[in-house]
Input
Amino acid sequence: MNSHDPFTLALSLILSGDPGLFGIIQLSLQVSLSAVFVASLIGLPLGAAIALFRFPGRGLVITLLNALMGLPPVVAGLLVYLSLSRAGPLGQFGLLFTPTAMVIAQTLLVLPIIAALTRQAIEDLWEEYREQLQSMGSGRVRAIPTLLWDARITLTTAVLAGFGRASAEVGAVLIVGGNIEGVTRVMTTAIALETSKGDLALALALGLVLLTLVAAVNATAYLLGQMSRSRMQ
Amino acid sequence: MMSVAMSRCIFLAKWAVLSALLLAAAGPLAAGTPFIVLASTTSTEQSGLFQHIVPQFTARTGIDVRVVAVGTGQAFAIGRRGDADALLVHHPAGEEQFVAEGYGSERRDVMYNDFVLIGPRADPAGVTQADSIQEALVRIAESNSAFTSRGDDSGTHRKERELWGTARIEPSGRWYRQLGSGMGATLNTAAAMDAYVLADRGTWLSFRNRQELVIVFEGDGPLFNPYGSIPVNPERFNWVKADLTRQWHDWLSAPEGQAAIAEYRIDGEPVFFPVRTSAAGRVE
Output
């Protein structure tokens, strides 16, 4: 790799088929997509429930959820580290410095984004369709899947925002994963490592590879959205 | 017309397939190779030493070594919580304390290299004329030349504070910049602001963004940089893999491990010197 042009370097990295790089790419996708998946399973119904139900302290919950969208990754990482550490409450599972720990940390980061954006989308939709749904005899609980389904295009954006957060962060996975080569090294921690080695061209090239990867995931989501839209018509 | 229920089923099926794929892909990661977790310093990791010696150890014993590279201070913190099986760090006083407090079972000298004072080629403080590291630091302080400090309680940062102490200087003022960063990040910053910086030789040799930076002072006794291996005490933390860790600890100071350390070169230069003179082929 004599080239110092990051674009050429990025291209040659991808074309070289280096198994180390592909392992890192695979792990990045695995960790971030798993985190987004778990966060969606919890966040979508949670956000919808907060939108539909009235309970004491609801304003506080919504404010907290919105605030947690700004949770610093390092803080999330530290919380998960202290919980999973051998000296911590979940220490007996020995999860620290494993990909599972990284999924947990990123889930913590992604969940507030998905839940908060879902809450907003469903609340707007509920205002619109409330009478219609209630005249059909739908209770609030029964309305949740219907509303989630109707809002699916907006919610895809919420989920993608969560994926963006997960794939971009370095602070949490660095603390709970430890950036172990071949075990917990992902794209962002590899970029941080190359930067600290002073190999800025390689770091930037890895950054370009990551951007391409994130763009590909977003493009896939967009195409799926287009397909389901055309099927409805 | 496709019913709503049916399209919902397809939607759920998509998610199910996706999650199954993710879980299946996660499979190989849980492979059954025995391993230990080693908390070590960024200086050893970034120099590429582990990529050279760990495969040799693994080939011999079948044990993988998972290296978590952090500052020495953080490595001690990880060890104190029992989150690593062994440490390989460079701060002898801290290492002895770690063992004395019962967190480590013993400390053994494994290898050494030295710290070097890095600075801009133009050398505004005239450090190259200094006769000792203390005099070099005095020249930097008196000329108010920019100095970037790790400021992160790493082994290098602890050494730097010791050196300022022996030079009887309490560094402060706009010229002294505490970065709170790793060695590489600190070197990047020093390169950008033409500052002086204390670095370990391993990181310096592997550092690629030097710009105007060169070694301006080296070779003084106080710059000695010994690395010690410490198994985390299994009597204190019963989950520590004592047997596997013992093999690693012994291999490091055995002729084979010492030779592996001695062989490692960056651009033809040795980076770490083993403590066993026979392996190093030199007399101490």
